[in-house]
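Input (tRNA hydroxylase):
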Amino acid sequence: MLGLKLLTDPRWANIAESNLEEILTDHAWCEQKAAANALYLISNNSEHIEFIQKMAEIAIEEMEHFNMVVEIIKQRGYSLGRERKDDYVSELMKFARKNGSRNTSFIDRLLFAAMIEARSCERFRVLYQNIQDKELAKFYYDLMVSEATHYTTFLNFARKYATDVDVDKRWAEWLDFEGQLIQSYGKSGAVHG
Ligand SMILES: [Fe+2]
Ligand SMILES: [Fe+2]
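Output:
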């Protein structure tokens, strides 16, 4: 699925479902961080007008996702906890190229975003296919579709602007790295846990 090297064990969905307040809190903040990432990309890449318009759309969509999760939290009488750390994303960030040309870093930042969208999409798929809660299963199905679109958007922009990077080769490196990294996860009830 989406080129991912390792698929999540479906039993992870049971861990997530055993503490819905926690997974929903973590999920809400994932959406907020996805919006923040789109805003960051806008502020640093003003020369790509088509790109920043798309990032503005994505930032809005991610905040709509955030609000949908918060609404579910509210309806169920849960609390939105504090922002959670995301070690998985921190590890991916370390892998992103920060030296080299400005464009090289930009392309890698797009691949970083595509990677997170791909894994989030896969995790939402595992949730929708395995959780007992019907309302949430439908919710996660819809989000899976949306994050798959974001994944494609980031990867396509990487290809479009890659003047000095072999995107297919670099994307293969990302998939290999992520496939190793994710082996340490899948044991806690967080979107990337
Ligand atoms: Fe989202
Ligand atoms: Fe997304």
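The mean pLDDT is 96.
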